[in-house]
Amino acid sequence: MVSTCWSCDEGPVIRDPDSGALVCTACGRVHDAGADEFVHTQTFTIDGQLDYSSSKQVYSSENPYLDRKLYLASDVINSTVAPFSLSPTLLREVLEMAESATDGTLASPGTAFLPALAAACVFLVARSHRLPISLAEAAAAASCTTFALADLASRIASHLSLPPLPSFDYSAALERAVEYSGKLREAAGEKTEEILSQARFLLRCASKWSLTTGRHPQPVVAGVIAFAAELNGVTSMSVEEIALEIPAVPYTSRRRYKELVAALVRVAQKLLPWGADVNARNLLLNAPMLLRLMEMRSQSDQSEQFLESFAPDIAGIVQVYSSVDEDESKYLQSVPLDVDDLGKNQRI
User: Fold this and answer.
1) pLDDT at res. 346
2) Rounded to two decimals, what is the model's pTM?
3) What pLDDT does 311 receive?
């Protein structure tokens, strides 16, 4: 027996053959979500990739206003998450975390809190799966500050008693940055792999020399890629242009680049026989020999004490090149981003 829609009190309610949901043929009201919590219509973007924004969570209750609010809120969350190209499984985790964090109410569409909630959940879910999505990248998707997003993520983690997050994977971030930078790959051509290989080694050095400590990850990656590109004769893209591709803050990326150059100059002065003549202006001329020698020495010393022995005067470098701006100083207050360091007494 066909029932009548209780929402419009006119149309018959039938079962949709694709989703299994009971739907009113007159007003489109969904009366029953069927067997699946999610209805996913497989649509594709212009480049052939699966369009995850078509994933909608279906809600059904006796409160039409709440149904519509939750549906529109899930739509906003999907739109915020879409640029990160998460798998359907991770997308579902994001939606479930957002629901759990707000006790199933999400937030009213049109508010600034909703995209921030989505971005915070993306950050927590991605980092828990060791995906290289930084706070700055997630904050940019929600059009909020990094510090505000870090605070919200900390409160969500505390509220849900999440386990500690793994450390940020700089190597994966580097791979991702080069892979997704179409302009860089076009400019580098056949030298892309060589640039990536040298950037990996430079990133290891930066980590050993504490140049990554208390820093936004993306500008560090941008600075390392820029130096490796210059080393291979790819000068058509500046540090700032590479930063915009990643994306990272151009001004901060230039600072990280200068810090790396200053550290390499100090190493060259200690390691090369003619080191006393090496400076920031002629470093690129000496860098091929310097890196080759450093790689050879580090390969013969698996403990990497060789690299650690050339740790520069970080305090001096930071003082000269890094008068930290307000946004980054707030970021420094929020790291490390393990749950143990988050405000456990705060509530959503």
Assistant:
1) 39
2) 0.64
3) 61
Encoded amino acid at 274, one letter? W
Which amino acid would we find at residue 254?
A: R
CB 183, CB 199: distance < 8 Å: no
Query: Residue 48: pLDDT band by 50, 70, 90 thresholds?
Result: low
Higher-pLDDT residue of 137 and 54 is: 137
- Round the average pLDDT of the chain to a whole number and report it: 77
**CA–CA gap between residue 328 and residue 250 (Å, rounded):** 13
